[in-house]
Amino acid sequence: MAEHSPRPGEVSIRIEINGRAHSIDVEPRTTLLELLRERLDLTGAKPACERGECGACAVLVDDRPMNACHLLAVQAAGQRIVTIESLSERPDFKPLLDAFVNRDAGQCGYCTPGFAIAAYAALRDEPVLNEAQIRWALVGHICRCNAYDGIVAAVREAAAKTGRS
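User: That's the sequence. What structure does it adopt?
Assistant: Structure tokens below.
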């Protein structure tokens, strides 16, 4: 088998996304968000500010929420990336998803994947979250519809359903 070499100006990276290993060639300036959306058709993470300030592009990187627009694909090489597409298939995510629907926490829905990623990580890490802790976990996420109260209520509802509040 012939050894693969990337095109000029590209580098080869290995990355695990949603439990699947990928070997892919990217330009060094390619963000993780661009890789996910443009090369792998994983469009749950949304481009918005593209400066790491709004959270619409949040994904889990080695189980920690991070903004995919603020991380180069080469920096993510060798790490485990989980997007909202994969998270939505997990049984432990269903109470949060149901709560977002029940509380109309999505409104337009553009920011919802990022908020859901952050909320999932917070609920996974903390057995009990009060309102201040929930709001702190969601710092850095912007909702243009101003659905913050619904989002916080959804996280509280999900915590109650899973016995975490």
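The helical segments are 32-39, 73-76, 84-87, 94-102, 112-125, 131-137, 148-161.
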